[in-house]
Amino acid sequence: MTRKQDRLIDEIAALKRARNAIILGHNYQPGIIQDISDVVGDSLGLSRQAAESDADVIVFCGVDFMAETAAILAPEKLVLFPDRRASCPMAKMATAEEVRGKKAEFPGSVVVTYVNSSAAVKAESDICCTSANAVSVLRSIPEDKQIIFVPDMHLGEYAARITGRDVILWEGYCPAHHHVTPLEVEREMLRRPGALVLTHPECPLDVIEISDAALSTSGMLDYARESDALDFIIVTEVGMLHPLSKQNPGKRFYCPSASLICPNMKLTTLSSIKHALEGNLGVVKVDSKTAQRARLPIERMLAVPRDS
Ligand code: SF4
Fold first, then answer.
1. How far is it, in rounded angstroms, from Cα 124 to Cα 98?
2. pLDDT tens, residue by residue, 210-265
3. Span 53-109, pLDDT tens digits
4. How many Å apart are CA 149 and CA 57, to the nearest integer?
5. pTM over 0.85, yes/no
6. Residue whose CA is at the smallest distance from ligand 1 atom 5
7. 308: in domain
8. Which domain holds residue 281?
9. Centre of ligand 1 from the C-alpha of residue 88, in Å
10. What angle do CA 91, 149, 299 make, to 5 degrees?
11. Same domain for 55 and 28?
């Protein structure tokens, strides 16, 4: 830690106290941002924290759709997003207009939308899902309904495979997870004999098939904590190694591919957090009509029992 970083951390702490603010940090954020966050977690868990917290100001360290979801679930709070450039390429792969077009093509279908999507796309959807509950959400949909899964084709394909449902897949993907290959994972397995392979379902199915478990980021943390194994190959964005290592001293975590990095997740800095808090920069606003419509599919998702 440099003296400049120490000073910035002190300044951020003082601003947080003065403004009754909390900092929420995603599991893929740089380690130093995770370390100064009041809560670290996955996108939906953080948005729930935003809604439940007594804070007046939420500084959301992640990417744009996450800050939007926090603003939807906590409309009475001021949500600040430190770096406007931190957008999610996968969320941009579906627009509200395109989703309306697909619904018109398949009338009566149910649109299931991964939370990694814009508020406008959520507003066109019937129900949302996360990587942790996509399977449960698909199982909750009546058998006679056609499902359109937006925007992540890999998560949709994985959930379709597990549930045996016929799903129309959107052609979106997360660039960080999409490019990892079975060969890269197998090479890492040779380097780390005995290591368990935990893979995020945003990865292609052929990578999931050679893994020990397909898990969301929160699922990986639970799995690593409860497992007796000491070595894990973690097939998700490299930032995840930080909370895993921090929460499991004595266990070792390895990233198998150089592609597993999301540059947008790394844009948040201590300076940008300080400036956001000082000057109310990066205020996240979702217009009330869109927010109201987007809230409904999120609430439907939250009502689905985990193992339905
Ligand atoms: S890791 Fe992938 S899904 Fe997550 S923010 Fe980055 S591009 Fe989007």
1. 10
2. 999 999 999 999 999 999 999 999 999 999 999 999 999 999 999 999 999 999 99
3. 999 999 999 999 999 999 999 999 999 999 999 999 999 999 999 999 999 999 999
4. 33
5. yes
6. 88
7. no
8. 3-87+265-285
9. 5
10. 80
11. yes
SS3 111: strand
Residue nearest to atom 8 of ligand 1 (CA): 88
Q: Which of 262, 266, 267 gets mutated to test ligand 1 (max ligand atoms within 8 A of its CB)?
A: 262
Are both 147 and 295 inside the same structural domain?
A: yes
- The answer as to whether 153 is a domain residue is yes
User: What's the CA-to-centroid distance between 89 and ligand 1, angstroms?
Assistant: 7
Residue 307 lies in a domain: no
Mean pLDDT across the chain, nearest whole number? 96
Residues with CB under 6 A from ligand 1: 28, 63, 88-90, 116, 174-176, 237, 262, 264-265
Which CATH number belongs to the domain containing residue 114 in this structure? 3.40.50.10800
Atom of ligand 1 nearest to the CA of 237: 1
Instruction: Name the residue with tokens 């969301």.
Output: 216
b/e code 153-169 from CB counts within 10 Å (16+ = b)? bbbbbbbbbebebebbb
Amino acid in the structure at residue 296: L
